[in-house]
Design goal:
This protein is of the alpha/beta class. It contains eleven helices and nine strands.
């Protein structure tokens, strides 16, 4: 054994420090590496390029309601896996995995609270739950939010995000489109505002129903909003579509939206809208 091997072997082994996998977040837009904690504290908005990341109901409610105080509405009870659907996995197993991952019963969660003193019912679709798809539970949760707003005589505000109808529920998923449309009509008959905030992505049957029926239509910057995908449309009409034609800014320019609002300004903007649409309804 050489003297170098002897010296090397005599050095005590120092274990390599483990770095947590979630310590850093890479911005999908500009590629900047961000500390995950700082990124989350900034409401999942990249401080360099202002890309808006996807956030779940808890983070949304904490940022929106006064003091982060709110009360969750009960989850509706609906038939689970009505078609006993199975593809590469059983639908029941997919539901179980999504609930374990998100801690939510399904993709739409409602909460009651105040926004700068104004009472509101707020619904948030969680893209992390089976891509935010619309099934029986989402349709029923929407109606629960509508009925709570009517009972409390306050606005219903919904943050949409999802990939459209949930294929594992077939025609019953598509039936949620007219169901939620009737819910919107009930709000209008009660003289209450219905405000939609479209987040990335809002597509398919969600766009074709309650996402486009708001009294005021808002969106977050850069949100993908559309019915069919760009490649599907291009192959159908055999024409090249303009760059970013399904992004929030393009839709605002062409009259499909009323406002595109930065996430940091949403709370103040929603409070302003509610004060216009429901004057005198501030909490005591």
């Amino acid at each position: 054994m050489s003297w170098l091997d002897k010296v090397r072997n005599s050095i005590p082994f120092i274990p390599k420090r483990e770095t947590p996998d979630n310590l850093w977040h890479k911005c999908p837009s500009c590629g900047t590496m961000l500390f995950t904690r700082e990124y989350e504290e900034n409401q999942s908005v990249c401080p360099k390029c202002q890309h808006h990341g996807r956030i779940g109901p808890d983070d949304r409610f904490d940022a929106l309601f006064d003091g982060g105080l709110y009360t969750l509405l009960p989850d509706p009870e609906v038939a689970e896996d009505p078609l006993k659907f199975r593809d590469s996995k059983r639908y029941a197993d997919r539901l179980k995995a999504a609930r374990a991952k998100t801690g939510e019963a399904d993709a739409l969660v409602n909460a009651r609270g105040t926004i700068e003193g104004y009472q509101a019912i707020v619904g948030v679709q969680n893209y992390g739950f089976l891509s935010g798809t619309m099934g029986l539970a989402v349709g029923e949760a929407f109606i629960v939010g509508v009925q709570a707003a009517i009972a409390q005589h306050c606005p219903y505000i919904i943050f949409t995000s999802g990939g459209g109808a949930r294929m594992q529920e077939g025609i019953m998923s598509l039936m949620q489109m007219p169901k939620t449309t009737i819910g919107v009509q009930q709000l209008r008959e009660a003289g209450l505002p219905y405000i939609v905030v479209m987040t990335d992505p809002t597509t398919g049957g969600i766009t074709a129903s309650y996402a486009m029926l708001g009294d005021v239509q808002l969106a977050e910057p850069g949100a993908l909003i559309g019915f069919a995908g760009q490649r599907v449309i291009e192959s159908t009409i055999r024409e090249k579509l303009p760059e970013g034609f399904q992004r929030a800014e393009y839709l605002l320019e062409h009259g499909m939206l009323d406002m595109v609002v930065h996430r940091h300004k949403l709370r103040a903007e929603l409070a302003r809208l509610v004060s216009y649409l429901c004057p005198g309804k501030a909490a005591a």
